[in-house]
Amino acid sequence: MKKLLALSLSVIMVLSMVGIAAADDGVVLKVVAWDVNTTTYYAAQKEAFEASHPGITIEYVDVASQDYGTKTSTMLAGDDTSDIFMIKEVTDILNWNKAGYAEPLNAYIERDGYDLSGFVGMESGYAFDGVQAGLPFRSDFWVLFYNKTLFDDAGVAYPTNDMTWEDYKDLAIKMTDASKGVYGCHYHTWLSAVVNWAVCDGVNTLVDGEYDDLAYFYNLYFDLAEAGACMPYPETQAAGLHYSGAFGNGNIAMLPMGYWYVSSLISNIQNGTYEVKDWGITAVPHKEGVPAGASFGNLTGAMINAKSANKDAAWTYVAWLCGPEGAKATASTGNRPAWVSEDVASVMSSVEGFPTDEASKAALLPSMVSIEIPGVDHASEIKTILNEEHSAIITGEIPVDEGILNMNDRVAEVLGK
Amino acid sequence: MIQQAPVSSCRRPGGKLRRRRTLVALSFIAPNFIGFALFTLIPVIVAVFMSMTEWSGGSLGNMKWIGLQNYEKLFAVPQRYIDRLENPNFFSILGLFFERVDIGIALKNTVTFTVITVPLTMVFSVALALALNKAVRGAVAFRAIIFFPYVSSTVAICVCWNFMMMKNGPINQLLMLFGSSFNKTWTADSNMAIWAVIIVSVWKSMGYYMVIYLAALQGIPRELYEAATVDGANKWQQFTHVTLPQLSPTTFFVSVMLVIGCFKIYDTVALMTGGGPGRATKMLVTYTIDEFNASKYGSACAIAMVLLVLVLTVTVLQFRMEKKFSAD
């Protein structure tokens, strides 16, 4: 029954492609992606690639965003031969790699001497036991947004790209002005906004079952909350306050947030929705012993189907898409490519509405990016546990130490340790 | 074997006619039954089966039959906690179950929520129905106002209540007037979070049950009250000896509906507390969804089965009690 369904689905898929394939000479690469029509960079990538690679045509296969994981897994299980699958969740590629759907890229990388340095470590998010199952082309890693007007008014120097968390704490407290309702910083309610910084060292992860390193960041939050430098979590949570509105209101000096916020910030300032006028970004602060400019983030990438008939052409595309040239095409639409380079940063900072100062441009060049939550078995169970204990710790219902002990215990139980 | 009931007409209808009648009868049931079978019956049966498998989505070929292992895993108290006990015995381990194990916590929270919410809602809806049953000025308007929460959007209700129960919100300030020293956001406090959910649930559903009680009150024959008055019964005696017994079929219906509704609590919790802080308001359904989101479909179905058994047991008990009650 299942096979039949998968078979008929793929037959329909293939049939719908035949018409297109027959019309063109050369290779047609079928790229499975989500929300193709509403995501701006797909068209830009296709155009730029086809212009520089005559003989290879990109044809997108659109899959609804909310069903992407299920639908693509079904397609792959049904021996679909689409050449490239875009990777939405790290857990998707983890499962695809396990099931043997992903063409390992190691041999191609070695053959072409493909340079991975521009990924500043992000490629490891798609590497499982040494097998490079895919490559990232987009990464909204976290940066620090700040409101220049508030700093100017207070006569305080702007945040810099090399701040430590201690510097950040001092600066946030300095910028707080209760009489004007100004908060030095803002914590969004997510676990990642409070303690994910612990993974920036590239060694710790949120799935290793050891959470003692989170204590530093919980204590940082409590210090800031006690000093009145940030809104207390219970209030933000109960009010359902969104970070975008909070920063947009213009009374928050600093906000660590994912790069995705840039495009909505620019458009909301342009259409006059936000109070905040003048803003900048820097790298997120770092802990002592971790290099400045280290951050964390999530990835979007591409995988070559092991059943593709055009693997070489598919590699040509993936290598281009994820590398510096593809990154420029992605960046031209205001999105953050995974590839980090001066060229890419120039394209990104030339987007209208992006801050013009050098520090903001330099913040586009992170030294290292770790994965928010790596794709491993039990990742979502672990996430649930961490979120539960997080909500108890950050509301002050249990002491930090007890919460972290609970995290260690409960995750160890899941991992079978 | 039970023989087919004899047809009263002098001539037994022929096989053809009988078949036609059966078909006509079935065609009347079909629209409802097909919907019920497709969207309720079959999924329930599949869920029973799935609760004994291990499956994380993708190909159905990955589904593995594991018997009762999901249930064992759900109810197991981790050894590491038992080892930390100074004096491990049945009761201390049972305590650990309700304190440390997800399903134990979810059971405890769901039962606590139900045990408090059901009687509270019933008391409030009866009281409101009694108050608004009289032909007082504006009774109709009040009925509409009290019914209003039931037809409002749950999201809007929860957002408003969350604001009202914030640290410096109106409710805490009001309580402070009465000498309360509680100064925390309700939904961020382990002890008060469940009360926040209870208050909103009672407030939201009491209007609906008030309407049901109003209808029932109007169905009580006047003569009973007149007879009671003649016998010298005061208002309270009239209430306990006439009104309440006459309302008992309604009370039975209301209690069954409420208990089932309470066991299935999800939306209010998800919107107000998200199950937190910690696991203070984690309910059986919240837990099911967590497991579902973690792609542990077998385990999620097993929790749903626990809920099914719980609801079934309570409902059967209620039916038994009702029978005994009405026989008395």
Give an overview in words.
The complex is a heterodimer of chains A (417) and B (328). Chain A starts with a helix and ends with a helix. Chain A has 417 residues and is an alpha/beta fold. In chain A, helix 2 (40-52) packs across helix 14 and helix 17 (379-394) packs antiparallel against helix 18. Chain A has 18 helices and 13 strands. Chain A is globular and about 70 Å long. Mean pLDDT of chain A is 88; it is low at 17-24. Chain A has a five-stranded mixed β-sheet with strand order 2-1-3-12-6. Chain A has a four-stranded mixed β-sheet with strand order 8-9-7-10. Chain A folds into two domains: 2-138 and 300-340, Periplasmic binding protein-like II (D-Maltodextrin-Binding Protein, domain 2, 3-Layer(aba) Sandwich), CATH 3.40.190.10; 142-295 and 372-415, D-Maltodextrin-Binding Protein, domain 2 (3-Layer(aba) Sandwich). The longest helix of chain A has 22 residues, at 2-23. Chain B is built from 14 helices and two strands. Chain B is mainly alpha-helical and 328 residues long. Chain B has a domain at 101-293: MetI-like fold (Orthogonal Bundle), CATH 1.10.3720.10. Chain B has a two-stranded antiparallel ribbon. Chain B has helices spanning 15-50, 69-75, 79-84, 90-100, 102-133, 139-151, 154-164, 170-177, 193-218, 222-230, 235-263, 267-272, 284-293, 297-327; strands at 53-54, 64-65. The A-B interface holds A 1-2, 70, 73-74, 77, 95, 99, 232-235, 237-240, 378, 380-381, 384, 388-389, 391-392, 395, 397-398, 409, 412-413 and B 57-61, 78, 80-81, 159, 162-163, 165-167, 184-190, 274-280, 282, 290, 293-296.
